[in-house]
Amino acid sequence: MLRLLIADDEKIIRETMCSIIDWKSLNIEVVGVCKNGLEAYDAILDEYPDIVLTDINMPKLSGLELIQKITQNRDNIQFIILSGYHDFSYAREAMRYGIKHYILKPCNEQEIIEAVQDAIKEHYRQLPSQNIGQNPLFSGEYLQKNLMYNILLQLLSSDLPTEKLPPLYESYLDFYHTPYHLCYVFFLEEVFVSSCISLIQSFFKSYGITASFAYIYVKNTLVFFFAEPPEGASFLPELGSFLEEKMPQTPCSFLEETYDALLPLLETLRRKVKRYETIYLYSGTHPITICNYNYVFQKTLEISDCLAKETEETAHKNLLEELKQLLLSVKDLDFLRSLVNSLLLRAMQTFTSLPAAELTNFMKFAASVSSNQEICDFLFEKLEVLYPAPVISGGNLKPFIQEILDYTNEHIGDCNLTLKWIVENQLFMNVDYVSRQFVLQTGIKFSAYLNELRIKKAKQLLINCDAEKIYTIAEQVGCGNNPQYFSHLFKKYTKMTPKEYIQKMKGEEGAS
């Protein structure tokens, strides 16, 4: 579900936009409703929305100033400007920052919905994980393949409803707007499955498509799917002829269906495939057999999720032991490998700070060994890193929280500093988890911590500063070349403007 923030200084407008539109039907969660630009900026730092619907003329920080500050962060945020000013200069200024959606007041509900729908499409078009290899968490072909493979394993090995999948993976895949092709190869005997998969891979490679597919085989039918390539898939009808030519020994036939999005495709796939007692899931040309793994798979991921939330040491230790016993009970080596990979991917998305390269090496190790015990022994050595124990002493912080504090202190002059950027580029962790943990560990939101740190440093610098050079202080504490924003921020926390603070401090010095 994408996250939306609304900013407008007119109470009736922001509250109406929040309530009159059925955001849930658009797969949108409203994470903030703000009354001025300064409040909106702090909310963006804390709530990391995907879409911001903002008025252009707001107090403390205008819509354009807000956009200017945020777009410097390299964040994939889609802005929709709402303005009552029929002046093209505002639209022209917005275009400089890549803003494509500009709505004039008064507007109706449908205009807003259409602009949001366009912003959603643009968000997914720009999403770095459309090419998963660009994402630090999923760099490399090995992890690309495991992502979709893990989705199918979870879909087919558990009773998790299909609609519950997007919240787990939508940071990396578009479930709602990217078209997909679902392909069937019928009348394919099991003995020819591996060679058929190899031929399909070579066929797609000849068209420059190197994405790794996961394949499902049930009852003489091979199934696979892939996202619509930018140049289209007009070549697909040729695949049937290609397979007939290369595999004359088996009378297979080819069929293709097109879906507007990944989620309905997965629901169709689930409905058609799960009626069979035995399902073969292929990663490349190597299958695992999915039979009665429902309980084990669901229980493993359930324990993993509990470990992410558990704050009591003994309970955390008991959960780890339960996880070990569950993994030791798995006899099928291929299923154990897939289950371990699912745990690793879940940990990456939830809270581990283990480097992606090390996780990839572990997956490769699991694929190379021939003993369940070897896999379990190696995994158990990593559990304390994958699922770190809760901090016992109230005076200590989790290492990754301390790292955030240290990084923020060292880079306080960076006007582009956000928790989201630190998490994704320094820690390689899940921003939702870290954001929650930051509040639990420190007692305040990141934006408040950052602002308080900036004001503290500004006070130190202002003591020896002339009123005419306040702009230099703004730059040193991370407010960029925007002294007006610095002044608003300083007054919010001290009830004084920077000039008033200088006069006060110099007055006290003179009196002493």
TrEMBL record:
InterPro entries: CheY-like_superfamily, Homeodomain-like_sf, HptR, HTH_AraC, Sig_transdc_resp-reg_receiver. GO terms for cellular component: cytoplasm. Residues 3-120 form the Response regulatory domain. This is Stage 0 sporulation protein A homolog. PANTHER family: HISTIDINE KINASE-RELATED, TRANSCRIPTIONAL REGULATORY PROTEIN HPTR. Keywords: Cytoplasm, DNA-binding, Phosphoprotein, Transcription, Transcription regulation, Two-component regulatory system. May play the central regulatory role in sporulation. It may be an element of the effector pathway responsible for the activation of sporulation genes in response to nutritional stress. Spo0A may act in concert with spo0H (a sigma factor) to control the expression of some genes that are critical to the sporulation process. The modification 4-aspartylphosphate is found at residue 55. It is found in: Cytoplasm. It comes from Blautia argi. Residues 402-504 form the HTH araC/xylS-type domain. Pfam families: HTH_18 (PF12833), Response_reg (PF00072). One of its GO terms (molecular function) is DNA-binding transcription factor activity. One of its GO terms (biological process) is phosphorelay signal transduction system.
